[in-house]
Amino acid sequence: MSRLADYFVVVGYDNDKERTNDESTQISCGKIVQRFPENDWADTSFIEGIEWFCQPLGWNLSYEKQEPKFFTSVLTDIDANKHYCACLSFHETLAITLNKIVDEEDETVLPSKFQTGCASSSTITNNISISHHSVMYAPKCLVLISRLDCAETFKNCLGTIYTVYVENLPYALETLIGNILGCIQVPSPGGPQVRFSIGAGDKQSLQIPQSPSLPVTGTAVYFVFKQLGIKNVLILLCAVMTENKVLFHSKSYSHLTESCKALVALMYPFRYTHVYIPILPAPLTEVLSTPTPFIMGIHSSLQSEISDLLDVIVVDLDGGLVTIPESLSPPVPILPSPLWENTQELLTMILFPNLSQADLAFPSLEKPTNYPKSEALIDKELRAIFMRLFSQLLQGYRSCLTLIRIHPKPVITFHKAGFLGARDLIESEFLYRVLDSMFFTTFVNERGPPWRPSDAWDELYSSMNEVLKSEANNKNLIAQHIQDLGKILFENECPNPVTYAQKVLRPPDGSFHRIHQPAFPRINSEKVNVIINEGIKKNCISQRFIAVRNQNRIIPMGPRLPEVLDVRPNLLNSARRLEVLKTCVSYIFENKIADARKLVPAVMRTLKHRDARLILCRELFGYVNGNKAVLDHQQFDLIIKFMNKTLQNSTGIDEYTVAAALLPMSTIFCRKLSTVYQFAYTCIQDHPIWKNLQFWESTFYQDVQTQIKSLYMLHTRKSEHNKESNCVLDDVPLEEPTALEITAEQMRKSPSIEEENKKEFAQSEESTLYSQAIHYANRMVSLLIPPDVNAVGQKPKTSFRLDDNHSVSNSIMGSHSLSEHSDEGFEENDALEVGGTVGKIISRFIDRVCTEGGVTSEHIRNLHDMVPGVVHMHIESLESVYLESKRHPHVQKPKIQAPCLLPGEEIVTEHLRCYLMPDGREDDVQCLIPAEGAIFLTNYRVVFKGSPCDPLACEQTIIRAFPISSLLKEKKISVLYLSHLDQTLPEGLQLRSSTFQLLKIAFDTEVTPEMIDGFRKTLCKARHPVDEFEHFAFQSYGTIIHGTAPLKTKEKYSTLKGFAKKTLLRTAKKAGFKQKGQAKRKLLTSSLDFDTMGTTETVETHSLDDELEEDEFETNTDSLPRLLTTKDIERMKERNYVKDWKRLGFDESQNGFRITTLNSNYSLCRSYPAVFVSPTQITDTALIQLGRSYKSQRIPTPTWRHRNGALLIRGSLPHSKSVIGMLKNSTGSNTMSHDVTNYHEQDKYFIALIDTMPKTIPLTLAQYNMSGINLSMSSLLLNSSEEHHYLSRNDTSVTPEVSRKFKSTLGTNDTKVSNWGDSLKRKGGTVKNCAATTYRKMRLYVLGEKSQTKSVVNADLCAEFIPVDYPDIRHSRMAFKKLMRACLPSSIINESDQTFAKNVEQSDWLQQISSLLQLSGAVVDLIDLQESSVMLSLEDGWDITAQVSSVAQLCLDPFYRTIEGFRVLIEKEWIAFGHRFAHRSNLKPAHASSNIAFAPTFLQFLDVVFQIQKQFPMAFEFNEFYIRFLAYHTVSCRFRTFLFDCEVERFDLGIASVEDKRSSMSTKHLLGNSKCTNGSDDENGGYINEIRNKSTVNFNRIGQSIFDYIERQHGKSQIFFNFMYCTQDSVLRPQNCLAALDLWPYYTNEELAQGPPYDLELTNADDEIDLSELKDKRIVISAGYDNIEKSDPNTFVFLLSELKQAETERGHLYQKWQQVWNNLELPQTEKLTRKSSLSSILLQSHGKLQHKRSTLEIIMKGRLSGYQDKYFHPHRFEKHPYTTPTNCNHCTKLLWGPVGYRCMDCGNSYHEKCTELSVKNCTKYKAVDGVVVPPNVNISQGDTSSIASSAATTARTSSHHFYNQFSSNVAENRTHEGHLYKRGALLKGWKQRWFVLDSIKHQLRYYDSIEDSTCKGFIDLAEVQSVSAAQPAQIGTKRIDEKGFFDLKTCKRNYNFYAVNANLAQEWIEKIQACLQ
Predict the structure, then answer these.
(1) I need a surface site. Which of 89, 221, 1277, 1331 has the fewest CB within 10 A?
(2) Measuring CA to CA, which residue among 741, 734, 282 is closest to residue 553?
(3) Model's pTM, two decimal places?
């Protein structure tokens, strides 16, 4: 029996407290007037602060009386007991005069003083007071506080009291209150209905629920669903179950209380244990910021208080809206998939029963139910669905309850991982978080014990399996079962079907409006106390009711989860596979190892399935007998392999189960190693499960449960045990009781068991826990301490990070952040550190499990004392085990195969056994990898040699190698998995080479980390040697120099002063300061100031690496002069490139040139050759002065001369103002003086070069009105007849002798050019004088930096500056890096958008090759067709200049396409003119500590040569292998040719002098034995001893030249010869479009059989072919493995080999192949003549036309680069499907299909990739009269012939259709205009400007004022991304409109604008958006 209510409280308005000045103190305006009883009950204390909950919005006065209100608040005391506060609120009259102090910050009305009776004035403060109404109303509340949730009964009682008070009925209020508090007793749950009266003539009844655990909801659940909907309620339930914060808000307090109660009721059987406040008072809203989960409710008027809550789910009850914050982390998980959908379907069936028939044409006339459902019944059916939901979700939970104690009280834990794994819900985030919640812990504690009262959920859970089975057979039963369960819930609240007619007093309507209603009277407390006491005495004497209690019973187990090792058959795991597994295990233990090994691969695949892993654990456990099972070595290895595979494949589903099953076997299986035993635990430690503390806890608890079960079973067998019927499980009959059943039996017998027996049981259980803790401490020591713990320095330190964050243990978890040790070395006490760490971990484990299990403190202390000793003993025992295991011979490994070595090549380190791992390449040889072998490091290469691991290919040999000097990146990798061995190797290396080779190796376990580190250090040292002579090129081959070390200054940073100076210079250079000129003479002058040419921008385009390189290059100058003899200079003039200049006529004075030796001592220019070409007019003194004007003193010098006299000139950027600067800065006027004496020295030199060029008229100052653009394009637009005539001349040589025959032709005017000029139209009318009718072409084109200012033509000098685009060194490095990743990916990429072709395209490598071809082609056309000279003035003159110059000469001069000529070309353009091979290939010894990236400049040149050779296969004497050979040995350092940066370095090392002397000696004598050098000491570098000091003598090999080597090999073999070579004198014009380019096979091909084929001595490429092997024999050739050229030679090679073999068989001396080839006679065949058709002529001319078009594009881009932004209008592209074939307007290729782009304005069609490349102007905007056009540009209007017409049309399309600049004051072009404030760039303010929006030009222009006609700038609307309103800012004006700001976001920056008001701003936004659309 219990009281109906505990307290009755009268709460009224507090009119005694006045407002204080302290705003921080909150004053309650409500107070407790009276409370009954006045003293607290002994069992229930009074709750303080009740006045806050009576008026949640505060105690506010009102001007009108309001109706009485009733609501119920819920309060929770400190013991988590809920108290229900039923409150009835009404208003009373107050007679007051209200004064208020005016406060600007607070406009609310607060009373300062109240007086009862008539109004009177109060003191006026601050001289200001305001008077309000004289009559106001204050709230008063009647409150009942009870522990029972009987809201309706409390409402009736309070209503009766209020009615008696209002109506002044003849009932004493004291009697009514006393009866409620003392006389009415309520029975316990399950009791009968109570009928009572409180003494006012009323009749009331109260029904107590039948079950104490079932919540009572009435119709609350139905109300929530009706307000929020199905999905919102489900999401709310998931949020509450996962411990999220939920906040309701509504205008009704009752709705808040009902909704909170309904949400908590849906959680049943879980009980909400967090903060629960259905009605939160306004003063307590700061509680919403609590970090703990809660369910709260507030009034809707307080929504502003919750706007900043970022982790609270807000529910609007009145609007039916659930708001989940986007920032909620983690997000709310939902129910697992099938349960989520099924629950929604069932809820829909209950809430909308007619939904299934809504669309039926003839719905059933039968009603879905036999009786109309009430809301209360629907409410219970909804709850029934959620009871079913949790019953399904927790199926089998009782199987995972783990018992660890029974006496003195049961202690039960939950095996969370086992439950998730058995239910296969490991990925369910919802269930995972529910199991981790406090609700579930309470659920286990309350419902875990097997002996307790049961309720409806227990019954439902035990029968749920049968219910689901029956519903699966008959879907109609679902509704019936829900109705049955709902009926049970309904009867729990309303067990009596007969309702009792209650009589409750109610005040008449409108009674609350009575004006003269007296105040609520004061209650006589003494009378109330007397009535309460009498009622208590009366109830104590006669108990009217007897409480009906639920009797305890054994809770049924319900559905059972499968046993730990219970295997269920499935489709993935057939019986055959499991049988193979069992057979293999039996073979192992029967010692049939050979048979077992046959089944190992199948078993390894089978172990991927869960059932197979469990079967293996069960099979292994079946062979365990005793505590030790000694196996032989092969048995032990196989068992360990299976155990590791099982643990590796285990997932979250069975990870704990498998590890727990293998845990005991790890200390049982062992093998004997001489005198010690090695257990299995030493070999299975590399798995994360052993470092998971939760695993150890759950496994420990499982074993403890087993031991306790055995303990009580032993006691049970001693006496007879009769099992009750309810102890037998319904599902699976068991032979012996489970642990829970034993616990239930003990709990049932507990009242009858004596205390001594209970203590004995408790002591036995504690001893069991203690012994198991000792056992597990030893197990943890075994599995956590590595076997090599005593091997100091051989391993990284183990980091014991235990994953204990998700432990289910209820004990307090300590800090798990263990100490991390430094990895900078290993101290001697590593073993002690590891032991100490493991000891701490075990101590933490002991604290957690022993505290949970109730182990005594003495035993816990003993355990802590025991752990260090166990750890120490185990570490000592592991030392001998580890040493013996290392001595034990492993499985027989393949024999190491030593690689073949070159002469002079030596192995420098011991080989390391390793595996070659597969990388990401998709080729045909991946089946041969992985391969097992060893890696070798020689003084030349890194070589891997081994054999494939695949047994089907193990007889083959795998070789991968690359030169050491080509190493780009060395990366250490770890954890490499070998699938064929099922083994993980910890250490590996990844080596990437610039020869496009990738070595990804994994070291064998026998290789120690010290050996790996030694290998890496040796490799790094060999990659960057200390001296140049340590390269392999100087360790073999060639003459020995008897000389000294090369001439060098002090070592870099050899002194502290030098280091400080160097550092300061670098810092100043980076900061922008320039170095001052040195007073003393240096070989290199310091840099001068740059002029306005923009060279500063040019320097900025280079990378920081280049700046460092240049800095080093300039500071390593020599301080001693080089003294040369006349003989030395004469030898220099015999060099190959000098001979080539003589061949071109540069040594003949009549041509205007001379070969000067001014730079013979390299004082003029360090990076130039000793001999170079100079005009005869320029003296040596002028050349010295000229050198100071150019970067690095690289003056422009001629390098090649065409037969028409045109020159190819190369140089670097000028420093000071020169003719090029004059060309760029010219204004176009012809008022300059032509007196050359006024020019600088560099200008004189420039004019001297121009004078040597062919000219049509003398240099005069004639006025030319004709635009230079037409003059310069005249020869490029020749008609076809002229072009064919020019190309059909029978010229057999390009030497100057031939050009002299055409001297008269070159000196006369070209009439065709004049005629072409007459046809051109000019702006402004006709020609002014007759002199203008004779036109001349530009005699010189200067190709310069694009970053320089735009140029115009200077007609005086007939020269033109054209800025060009080119791939600089930084972009080529990036492209090379991306190409390397595309061709050599380190791992397989599965992304569809990362294919090989896509990656190659994204690397931009082919685009750069195309750019080089295009630029070189322009040089070819300008020299050959235009007959103009070209000067290359790009960057430093040694990278892009060398590329363009070499390719242009290769196309122009057929001599360079021979083997001899190509050598001369490289020696001249690359070696002599100082391409920085050492820097670009990162070969400098000084670069060892720097990070300078490899630059593929020379590689790009060779790639271009390959592309040209592919397009013209008959034009080259050498083949493609020759190019690949050069590319490989450019970085190999096998030859000396490419080891240095310039000729001066070769000279200082003595190499150049030896090469000069060799030029006068025979090749045989020079390349013979090194002993041949004794003969001529004077000529063998002896002069070096005369110049240098003679203190030391070094013996260095000079090495050999790669071209000498090629010459010897070419004489012996045809490996470099192109049999399709045909001598011809023609100019090559290769296509440069991407479609015509191929990826060079050098990047992708490899030969694994013998390694790279470029070391001919290793690959035996010069051996003759054995014809007997090729005849009548099938040969298998594998691409990527075999050398296809050697295995399948072409016909020529085969016939030459056959001839040689035939002569050898006959005993003849065979001839060299070249003699045989040259003596061949061509067969006499009749000459075939073929007449070309029109189509063939057009086809032939198309390629030449495309080449010309490319040249025109470069010229026009350069000329118009300054006008594109001003006059060009871009295209506006949109996707367009092309159903009919169309040609692309950019590349002219076919465009057909769904992917294409078309301009919306002009209609041009493009490929997707061509849209970015196209720079053409949109042709929608035609040129009209009167428009502004760029200067010196006219529009061509005519053509002369078909080819010329095509070219002219191309020129017009690409260059002449400019975007015409309309006049800014034309009204039609002004879409919108007005004043706007615009914010400037960074740190600039706002400024008002006049803006014009132009929809025609698609621009937003701005001017200084409305009258201004000059545009100050514009914003291209094509770049605009968005326009939107913005936040206000300060712009400097007094008043601003906050809504007048808006932002314009472009792809480059954000523009901020401000209009005068919001309307104007909105208008601008709409106008701009309209233009964008």
Answers:
(1) 1331
(2) 741
(3) 0.52
